[in-house]
Amino acid sequence: MTESESIEYDVVVVGAGPVGENVADRARAAGLSTAVVESELVGGECSYWACMPSKSLLRPVLVRADARRVPGLRQSVQGPLDAAAVLANRDYITGNWKDDGQVDWLRSTGADFYRGQGRLAGTRRVTVHGPEGERHVLTARHAVAVCTGSRAVLPDLPGLADVKPWTSREATSAQAVPGRLVVVGGGVVAVEMATAWQALGSRVTVLVRGGGLLPRMEPFAGEMVAEALEEAGAEVRTGTSVEAVTRDGTTVVVTTSAGDRIEADEILFATGRAPRTDDLGLETVGLRPGSWLSVDDSLRVTGSEWLYAVGDVNHRALLTHQGKYQARIAGAAIAARAAGVPLLETDPWGAHAATADTAAVTQVVFTDPEAASVGLSLAEAERAGHRVRAVDVEFSSVAGAGLYGDGYRGRARMIVDLDTDTLRGVTLVGPGVGELIHSAAVAVAGEVPVNRLWHAVPSYPTLSEVWLRLLEANRDA
Question: Per its UniProt record, what InterPro entries does this chain match (predicted)?
Fold first, then answer.
C-alpha cells in the first residue's frame, strides 16, 4: 500500500452525488480549495439508480397515458411500449453507468477528485483508500462535509439473501422485464416502480403493510394512485406483510401474513432507507457508526465546529432537490465561517438557514396520475398545533383539465392557516400536476397572504386555473 503526504484543503467533501457536487461547487465559487472523495460513481444514487433512471422508465408510460386521453391521438398509441427501446434509453440517460463526464465536470470546477473509500480519522482529517491500494490523507482547514447519502433497507427475513431480491438499485437498472413482479412497500419507490414495470409488461402485485399507498401525503393521493394502478392491471393488497420469501429455481415464492402464496419472477423491497455512515469513521469523532447525523439549520453537525452533514445523511428530507438546496446553504455557511464573517442572515429564510426542509418540502411522485405536494398535510398541520382549514376542489371544475384530456381525474387541496391567512401546504393529484407544484412552493415558502394570491391571476385555459378554484372555495367556506 502506498501512502501520500497529508494534503491540506480548505474543505473536504466525502460523497460526490448531486449534494456533494453542489457543496464542492459552492466552496470553490467562494475561493476555497476543495477535495471531493467518492467510492462509487460521481453523480451518486440520483444519476445511476434513482431519479434519472426511474424517470426515464416512467416518462414513456406517462406520455402514452396522456396521449390516450386525447381524441384523434389515442388510436395511434394503443399498442404496447417498446420495452427494449425504453431500457436502452434508460441506459443512455445513466451514461451506461460510467461517470467520465461527471468526473470531468467536477474537475472543471477546480476541485481535486479522489476515488476511494473516505473515512474520518479524527478532527478535520479524512483518509482515502483508493482502488489500487493507495492511501491518501486529507486535512481540512475549515470543514469536512459528509454527503454520502442513504441506502435501501431490506427486512430481516430468513434466507432473503439467497432470494436475491431487488432494491431500488436493481429496480431501476434491470436489463429485462420480469413476467411477474411483487413490490413490497407503499411509498414513492414502490408506486413508481410498480407503475413503470406494469406498463413495460410485468404482472405486478403490490403488498402494503399499512392501510394505503403514499402514507406521507394526503390520503386521497394514495387512493387515486392505487385506483389507477389497479385499472392498469396491477393488484394492490393493503394490510398485508411478507412472512417468508424463498426462491425455487427461477421462481420467487412469497408467503403473506394472510397465509397467501404468491409466485413471481422478481421481488422488490421498497421498505425504507438507512444512512451510508456505517463505514465512515464516525467513531473517531465521537459519533455512532451507521447513525443519521443531527444538524442545525446551517447543516453543521450538532456539537461540532467543523463537521457538516448534507443531504440524506441528516434525515431532514430524503430528496435530491432538497439535498441540493441544503448544499447551497451549507456552502454559503462554510464560506462565511471560513472568512470569519458572522452569519448575518440569521432569520429563518436567510442564506444560511435550511428552512425549506421543515416548512416547504416539495415532492413529485411520477405515477399516473402524478401526486405532488409541498409543506404540511392536514394531519401534519393539526398535529403541529396550527389552526387550519383544508380546502378541496376537483380538477373537473378547471377548463384546462378538459383540454388536457378526456376523463381527466384530479384533486387539489390547500391547507390555510386561519391565524396568518397563509398556506401551510398544498397537495395536487392528476396528470401533469408535477409542473404546478412550484407555484405552490412559492406561495408556501413565501408565506404569501391568501388575499394577495387573488391577484396572481392564472392563465386560461390551463391547469393552473385550479388556483382560482381553490381561492373561490376558500372564500365560500
Answer: Class-I_Pyr_Nuc-Dis_Oxidored, FAD/NAD-bd_sf, FAD/NAD-binding_dom, FAD/NAD-linked_Rdtase_dimer_sf, Pyr_nuc-diS_OxRdtase, Pyr_nucl-diS_OxRdtase_dimer
For 20-32, write each residue's pLDDT tens digit. 999 999 999 999 9
242 plus 294 within the same structural domain? no
Residue numbers in the known binding site for NAD(+) are 185-192, 272
Cβ atoms of residues 408 and 395 within 8 Å: yes
Instruction: Report d(CA 106, CA 113) in Å as an integer.
Output: 8
Same domain, residue pair 461 and 424: yes
Domain-terminating residue out of 245, 271, 297: 271
List the one residue out of 234, 238, 229 whose CA is nearest residue 257: 238
Domain extent, residue 218, equals 153-271
Binding site feature residues: 55, 118, 148-150, 185-192, 272, 312
* pLDDT tens per residue across span 300-334: 999 999 999 999 999 999 999 999 999 999 999 99
Q: Is the peptide bond before 369 cis (omega within 30 degrees of 0)?
A: yes
Q: From the annotation, which residues make up the binding site for FAD? A: 55, 118, 148-150, 312
Enter the pTM of the model: 0.95
Are residue 147 and residue 207 in the same domain, yes or no?
no
